[in-house]
Amino acid sequence: MSVVTQSTRGCVLDARALIDQGYSRCTRWKGEKTTHVTCCFKRQCFQISKSHYSVNVSAAVDGGNADMLQKADKLSKKRKRKHSELNQGEIDSQAFHEKVRSVVLEGTKSLVDSARSIGYLNGVTVTVEEPLPSQECSLAALCEMAKELPLVDNEEQENCVQLLVAEDGCTSHLDLFSRLTENTADWATVVTLMGEEYVIPPHTSFLLSDFTRIQPLVHYGRRFELIVMDPPWENKSVKRSRRYSSLPSSQLKRLPIPLLASPNSLVVTWVTNRPSHLRFVCDELYPHWGVEVVAEWYWVKVTTSGQFVFPLDSQHKKPYEVLVLGRYRSSASNSSSFSETSDVPVEDQRLIVSVPSALHSQKPSLSEVLTPYVGAKAKCLELFARSLQPGWTSWGNEVLKFQHTSYFTLTPTDDQADISKDEPTDSPASSSPEKPSPPRHCPTTVD
Fold first, then answer.
1. 3-class DSSP state for residue 363?
2. What is the pLDDT of residues 149-202, one digit of tens each?
3. Nearest Cα to 103, choosing from 320, 399, 384?
4. How many Å apart are CA 281 and CA 332, to the nearest integer?
5. Which pTM value belongs to this model?
6. Residues 6+ apart with CB under 8 A from 322
7. Is 419 helix (H, G, I), strand (E, B) or coil?
8. What is the per-residue pLDDT across 278-324, written as a single tens digit (0 to 9) for each?
9. Residues 233, 277: contact at Cβ < 8 Å?
10. C-alpha dist (Å) from residue 261 to 181, 221, 289, 294
């Protein structure tokens, strides 16, 4: 069960279980031959068993439950500057933290206690003594190279949609950079793309491109009831680490949300703990798109024992991140796309508590916690994605990053026969619950 427990304060998620539930049945293509495998995200990626403290506050699970989070609440013993030495951004951060501190502290304690009562977050884990996957991601660089290619001409009348695997198992025909790629199969599919193996979830579609080549997504012809985005916010640590390219906040206004969102759709944005970014989303970005802010949620990161991963009052890193939820208010709100869940009230200040991934920038899936507000059959889109989700459409210049097989354990199943003839649902070209998208023409220009 990926949602371990929930209450009026929020929920506790098993982020790894959320990933794995889409890969219990996989088809692996090797040329024209196919085999069955199961794919599990590597356990060591979610083995966060110790908090990042300058002193040892790892209280024992037995006997220390009542005050474990209070111990985690202590300030680290690092050198602290006087208040007069703080810059305006740091002063704003402190003010925001004081506003949400009790919500995070009390809500997390309640949810962690509830999870422990059913045997979760009790510090008992199966330790895997293996290093973290260290696959070097070159997808963003490939997107930069693809920008040198000419845009698809109208005269060529190329479709903006393509099937992941041809009937003969071939993937060499794919244009991943300017066309949406669809896996219409009922099972996940392990395929070779650009010389590397990736695990693609069932009924998913994706576009691998950067900001300048997002237009095929608009021409995909779909409107989405849920749009989630994790923008590459500018900050000093990103510049120092050079882990990924950041994007100026002002550039986010160019995202064509009004062309992608259904009336009253839910728009969710991950925001860093920088107050200027939060103000920008609430006061500029959402109003620019016609999105009304309806709630602020907090993702709280804890260890496998239920401690905050960082001291709650740390001056440098907080154990929580903010999500801003809004509703797209379109003049077409009375259109046929309106559903009973389109305007379900979204509770404010809810918590999502989970053990975070040790992999940089891998956020937990929000699919299950947001379903009550958009409906089980909602069309969902993730922008700036670094992974894929079953049934979702995803876009980003690293959209396949965490789909690489180096992040998964692939286990052959008992049936290793050639299933291409026996299992018609395994073939992405075969029928699926939703009809494949009709052919569409790629644009000749990019805005």
1. coil
2. 766 655 444 578 999 987 766 777 799 999 999 999 999 999 999 989 999 999
3. 320
4. 23
5. 0.85
6. 270, 271, 272, 273, 278, 296, 297, 298, 299
7. coil
8. 999 999 999 999 999 999 999 999 999 999 999 999 988 999 999 99
9. yes
10. 20, 11, 10, 16
